[in-house]
Amino acid sequence: MTIDLPLARPDLTWAVTTNDNAKSAEERDAILADPGFGNHFTDHMVDVCWSARGGWHRPRVSPYGPIPLDPAAAVLHYAQEVFEGMKAYRHGDGSIWTFRPYENAARMQRSARRMALPELPSDYFIDSLKQLIAVDGAWVPSADGTSLYLRPFMFAKEAFLGVRPAQKVGYYVIASPAGAYFTGGVQPVNIWLSTDYARAGKGGTGAAKTGGNYASSLLPQAEAYEKGCQQVLFLDEGEYLEELGGMNIVLVRRDGTLVTPESDTILEGITRDSILQLASDRGHTVERRRVTITEWRDGVASSEIVGAFACGTAAVVVPIGRLLAEDFEIVHSGPAADELALSLRAELTGIQYGRVEDRHGWMQRLDA
Ligand SMILES: *Cc1c(COP(=O)(O)O)cnc(C)c1O
């Protein structure tokens, strides 16, 4: 069945082809009862083409499935790719919402610019999410802490081995139901300090949400696991705190001041920005500046720094219990910083699930 729905721009319409092999309500409910993270996908996907000649065209919602790709497609050789990560939340009245999607749209445009990909207009971006929710809304779970993870992405699909920006690109959105990240309470994580490997360098792609940054983080991440840590912290110039490779970091001072690294080699998280806004609303001072690993070490030794937390869409906010390095470790023991992190986490998730007033106008409805 193919039906046409209007897109934000009147000259483009969405062609919607529903999936004849969609999961039954029973199969879907069984998955939603214990989705894990990134294991299961909904029945449909969004697919929009771009070419240097024709711009954005052929917006489609189709059955979820493999993407036909020429073996010479540029992304497979030169990694010309960007992505986003966000969540759809079901509110108590059944309605479906997402959090600050215009920020994700703008960040995808910045990432695309850096990777020489075309910039998808924000209204297309938001529309693509709404189109997917229109057919797959039943996949948004309703249990506490669960959500439908939305993964917009774009890559170079032109078949050409010469090195230049591709003239054919595809934009897609897939969705994957996500369980509550932490069952039985949020546990502090241990972090490994990577000194042999860097995530990004000045003028590089650290500020873009692009797959290559993740590819280069996998080896240090494996090293972290070997050391008994769940995450890895990267430094800039062997000295300045950057981020965890998928989550941003915030230090907590004794007086409640929050300190977070500022650098053009960091991916600017929307979770971090929101948490810092909520903290600032509560009267906390927020410092965005360069922070050295020595400042953190000395600060903990003198009790000037009482804790740290990591934040990102997937895990929201997680206290950092311990930082392990080759020749030293930093241990946070007092509860104050963890309590602050968890209380900010509760306020943020309260807004996302519609239980706390959205005074900044962050929520956008997707199913209307
Ligand atoms: C996505 C991402 C984050 C977190 O960003 P949010 O918008 O908070 O989800 C942090 N670091 C990297 C490298 C990322 O890709």
From TrEMBL:
- Gene Ontology molecular function, alphabetical: branched-chain-amino-acid transaminase activity
| SUPFAM superfamilies in the cross-refs | D-aminoacid aminotransferase-like PLP-dependent enzymes
Annotated EC: 2.6.1.42
Record Gene3D superfamilies = 3.30.470.10, D-amino Acid Aminotransferase, subunit A, domain 2
Q: Which reaction does it catalyse?
A: L-valine + 2-oxoglutarate = 3-methyl-2-oxobutanoate + L-glutamate; L-isoleucine + 2-oxoglutarate = (S)-3-methyl-2-oxopentanoate + L-glutamate; L-leucine + 2-oxoglutarate = 4-methyl-2-oxopentanoate + L-glutamate
Residue numbers carrying N6-(pyridoxal phosphate)lysine = 209
**Carries keyword Transferase?**
yes
Any single Pfam family the record assigns to this protein: Aminotran_4
Q: Which UniProt keywords apply?
A: Amino-acid biosynthesis, Aminotransferase, Branched-chain amino acid biosynthesis, Pyridoxal phosphate, Transferase
Q: Pathway it acts in?
A: Amino-acid biosynthesis; L-valine biosynthesis; L-valine from pyruvate: step 4/4; Amino-acid biosynthesis; L-leucine biosynthesis; L-leucine from 3-methyl-2-oxobutanoate: step 4/4; Amino-acid biosynthesis; L-isoleucine biosynthesis; L-isoleucine from 2-oxobutanoate: step 4/4
GO biological process: any one? isoleucine biosynthetic process
The Swiss-Prot or TrEMBL record lists the needed cofactor(s) as: pyridoxal 5'-phosphate
Q: Which NCBIfam families match?
A: ilvE_II (TIGR01123), PRK13357.1 (NF009897)
Spell out the PANTHER family in the cross-references: BRANCHED-CHAIN-AMINO-ACID AMINOTRANSFERASE (PTHR11825:SF44), SUBGROUP IIII AMINOTRANSFERASE (PTHR11825)
Entry's family note: Belongs to the class-IV pyridoxal-phosphate-dependent aminotransferase family.
Q: What is this protein called?
A: branched-chain-amino-acid transaminase
Source organism: Agromyces atrinae
